[in-house]
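Need the bound structure for flavin-adenine dinucleotide, inputs here:
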Amino acid sequence: MTRDIKKLSSDIFDVLVIGGGVHGATIAYHTATSGYRTAIIEKNDFCGATSANSLKILHGGLRYLQHLNIKRMRHSITARREMMHLAPYLVEPLPCMMPLYGKGLRGKKVMQGALFLNDCISWDRNHDLPAGLHIPKGHIVSKKKCLEVIPDLETENLHGASVWYDVLAVNTERVVLEYVLQSVNHGALAANYVEATGIEKGADELYHVTVLDKLSQQKHLIKTRFIVNAAGPWLEDCLHVHQESVKKQKWALALNVVSRKKIFADFAVALEGQRKYEDKDALIRRGKRLYFFVPWRGHTMIGTNYEESSMSPDCLQVKREMIQDMVDEINAIYPPAQLKYEDISFFHAGLLPMRGKSEESNIQLEKSSTFFEHKESNFSRVLSVKGVKYTTAPHIAHEIVCFLKKQYPPLLSKQRQKESSSHAGQYNANESALQGMLEKKYGQRALQILQFLRAEQDDDIWIDKDAQLLKAEVNYLISEEMVCTLSDIIFRRTGLGTADRPERKLLVNLSDFMGKILGWDEARKEEEREEVLHRYSPLVYKEA
Ligand SMILES: Cc1cc2nc3c(=O)[nH]c(=O)nc-3n(C[C@H](O)[C@H](O)[C@H](O)COP(=O)(O)OP(=O)(O)OC[C@H]3O[C@@H](n4cnc5c(N)ncnc54)[C@H](O)[C@@H]3O)c2cc1C
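Answer from helper R.:
Posting the output first, comments after.
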């Protein structure tokens, strides 16, 4: 995948997708595979904003049974399956457990019925998936089993627990990247660090979108028939297409924390929070928000807290008090966690669209992701996406293609996937020790890394052996996956910094190595390292 700005500004596109989060990437993939000449631009790096900050659960939609919203469940199930197909190496079934207290609507019998219905509605959830990714049926377990998984839980009125399976996207950033890479494989053009800044309709009836290449600081024009604004929380700022067209959207800051402490072993555990929460649409209301404790990368991700926010998405700030508040809430929910501020190694935060009428303590997010076409004549053929769930992005992408097909059938025949240019063949005896590590991170793309490994002149193949990062990986990432900064590698291509702060030694070795390829001087290398370290700024680390 090459960053070809010249081609971006000389070709004419059917669809220009603005925003390389999960919605933009899935839309680009679906339009490219349907035969539309597609371009996707992202003003920073792919999956650098909200989509990198989710709790990483690809939902099957069990919770939507509370709303009896079968349609939404089906959207989740089919969208999740598509993601699992596309990036099987990045996902795994996630056993989830929720303790059951009391009787009636919240008791064992009703939950058993709900799990049965969930399994029936998701009857095709494993269709065409490899056996290792099959999602088992849900069931009820005894109080004893529940206490084995969640020790020292409050036992008064505890009858057992429900167990169901969702899916964990271990590296959400690479799932988005997979969509971008596959859209390019199907003929799309993609570029990161390209920001859409202006829009005009030309005499040729095409949109002329002004873009800024943030690496060269040069302006260019992209010509396109349709525009999809998938700018996430920049929805209203993007191209100013919303000037007078819609009511000002309200946003909620959603926050997860990542704890170094492994709180529960193998299950994601759902526990009720302390604060009041009324899900206005639910037929079965719990009265409290559920918090999930998700085992991930040897840590525990815990979320999600919400508060109304008027912060600009360009300078989202998570303050120490917000993290402390979350730590206090977690200790109140599950006192045996005994979590301290210093246990928090990272946090995930992003802005999500809120419903108009929410009270401070009872934030209601928009229920489903949607898209709409702008009605004003100067913005016809501009679609905007309002996304609330990572999981259902492929469903929105599919709906957008259906919409486009009614207005403008694709002129290209369905784009055939280009043959991958690199067939490094099999791993030899020396390389086979690396096979498992590389395939876990890159799936089939690991074979391309082998080619870089074989061209390696140096006997020392590692950038950092403790971090399991090869020089060949970095060469591959720069050459084939559009890496431009140290942060791109640390956060979005390898995930090395997404659960905890990386060691300084890794940052120095990596920035030195990248600097040689990308021509960075010492000052630039220091800037790159500072940019990475800034991400951890309100947190406390013990210096090695
Ligand atoms: C804490 C938290 C937990 C969550 N947990 C889950 C979960 O477990 N499961 C789930 O399904 N969902 C979850 N979500 C929701 C999900 O993450 C979001 O709904 C989804 O990621 C939004 O994706 P997006 O593509 O719309 O936005 P984004 O990911 O924000 O992408 C928009 C992109 O557009 C780019 N952009 C903006 N303006 C321009 C411009 N002018 N030119 C070029 N590019 C531009 C931005 O840089 C950005 O990268 C969670 C969200 C949060 C914050």
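Comments: The chain has 14 helices and 19 strands. The longest strand covers residues 158-169.
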